[in-house]
Amino acid sequence: MEVGQHLAWEGQECTGLGLVLAGMARVYKLGESGREITLYRVEPGESCILTASCLLSGQPFPAFAQVEQTLQARWLPAQPFRQRMHQSEAWRSFVFQLLSRRLASVIGVVEEVAFRRVDHRLAEFLLLHPQGCALTHQQIAQELGSSREVISRLLKDFERHGWVSLGRGHLSLLDPAGLKAGTVT
To answer: I want to staple 23 with a disulfide (CB 3.0 to 4.6 A). Which of 10, 29, 69, 138 is the partner?
Structure first.
């Protein structure tokens, strides 16, 4: 599956579970305003817990899933998935451990968005990319659950402080210590 291809759409019926062998997919929610927030990524050795939940509950998929890195996956149709859940302790354990880990990470995303200021989240994001990044302001906003306008305004402010350098298609971190100290209040 190629980069940019959608794997699942919100409201879609789940017909099976993909087991990712290589590549990566992003699972995200889209708000009425058009803003996106990344819930989690599915990497090699993992499966999408929202899909597993849909298969177990019969509910439609509640988000979107899109390929971020060329994806290779093995497909397990719904009926064999359900049979394995009933017959295999190892399979149940795999699904429930994945569910537990992913639920904890999604709760972390909710806490970040609900309780931490955007400038702190942006600074932390930038500090995780010390060599800079080639993400657009829109892509950073999607990662942080914000709007492009807010991210652009904050990045300009960070640039005025001398913490980052903004260039077309690239952002460089100039003063990590200053960024960290300047955004912790």
So the answer is: 69
